[in-house]
UniProtKB/TrEMBL annotation:
Xref: Pfam families: Trans_reg_C
DNA-binding span(s): 1-102
UniProt keyword annotations, A-Z: DNA-binding, Membrane, Transmembrane, Transmembrane helix
Highest rank taxon of the organism: Bacteria
Source organism: Erwinia sorbitola
OmpR/PhoB-type domain sequence ranges: 1-102
InterPro entries: OmpR/PhoB-type_DNA-bd, Sig_transdc_resp-reg_C-effctor, WH-like_DNA-bd_sf
Name the record gives this protein: Transcriptional regulator
TM regions (residue ranges): 166-187
Length: 308
């Protein structure tokens, strides 16, 4: 059973993914991976964890963008009211990793947990990721002066009115966004022309077939750009496949922001498949080439040798 923690006056209930402020009773929610990251940092409070350790423990070696970890750290700092510059609670250790300071982290005992549940029961609705509006609201609440929370009860503040106005408009905006996503993913495809697969000219690669998925009406010049970035790697990769009597088929679909890259390795007695979603793939050609080559080689080494 996962233990709960109190971090900088915020009680963290990992079973529901919610944060409860000990003084005001305000509740906040974290996304799935933000919650996992906070749990790993809390269980290792006072210990520096490297980027590789956090990626392994939180994302379990999934292929994620370079900004996934820094973005999750930023979201945790906003939620816990930590200053991104002073970094009192979650600190960035240059060239080493991140650390959650032990003085701000306290493990909650079973008795304390029951007491907190009686005072302000936590909602067990499914956790949702921070969006731009939610993150902005957390930033505004974190920026409120300390004197406001210590003011006498007789003094009224305009902050609750502003917060009510914000939530008044946030709910309709989320509903409209949800409707837009439903139309985009379910309605528009029914009226759009069918997709097709274009095989690229791969005559120079005896063991590699490259196929681009064209999703109409979305048209990109991804095949040309991808060929330019992979041209230095494909001949060497083709020779390695040829030596091991393995063929490779690659299906890819690219937009300006992401590249969906799926490869299938086939030998006379075995086959392996790997799917990757690579964000910002156009920004760094050598890094993209190294990533695809490394993952292909790793998958190739996992294949069983055919004994004849």
């Amino acid at each position: 059973m996962t233990a709960d923690f109190i971090i900088h006056h915020w009680y963290v209930d990992f079973s529901s993914g919610a944060l409860l402020h000990q003084n005001s009773g305000e509740q906040r929610r974290l996304g799935e991976y933000q919650l996992k990251l906070l749990l790993v940092l809390a269980e290792n409070a006072g210990k520096i964890l490297t980027r590789d350790e956090l990626n392994t423990l939180v994302w379990e070696d999934r292929v994620v963008g370079n900004n996934s970890l820094p973005n999750a750290i930023h979201a945790l700092r906003v939620a816990l009211e930590d200053d991104g510059k002073q970094q009192r609670i979650i600190k960035t250790i240059p060239r080493k990793g991140y650390i959650l300071e032990a003085e701000y982290c306290q493990r909650v005992s079973a008795t304390e947990k029951e007491t907190l549940a009686e005072i302000a029961p936590l909602s067990h609705e499914p956790p949702q990721l921070y969006d731009e509006h939610a993150e902005r609201s957390l930033t505004e609440s974190a920026a409120e002066p300390l004197s406001a929370s210590l003011a006498e009860p007789a003094v009224e503040s305009s902050a609750p009115v502003k917060k009510q106005r914000f939530w008044y408009w946030l709910v309709p905006a989320q509903v409209l966004l949800l409707i837009g996503l439903i139309v985009w993913f379910f309605v528009l495809p029914a009226y759009a022309p069918p997709s097709r697969v274009n095989e690229l000219d791969s005559a120079s690669y005896s063991n590699i077939r490259l196929m681009e998925l064209e999703r109409r009406p979305i048209r990109t010049n991804a095949s040309e750009e991808l060929n330019k970035q992979l041209v230095s790697m494909l001949p060497q990769l083709n020779q390695m496949l040829k030596d091991q009597k393995v063929t490779m088929e690659v299906f890819f679909f690219a937009t300006s922001m992401s590249l969906n890259y799926t490869l299938t390795l086939t030998s006379p007695c075995n086959s392996e498949q790997l799917a990757m979603n690579i964000l910002n793939w156009r920004t760094n050609g050598p890094l993209l080439t190294a990533l695809i080559y490394r993952e292909t080689e790793r998958k190739l080494n996992e294949m069983e040798n055919c004994v004849r």
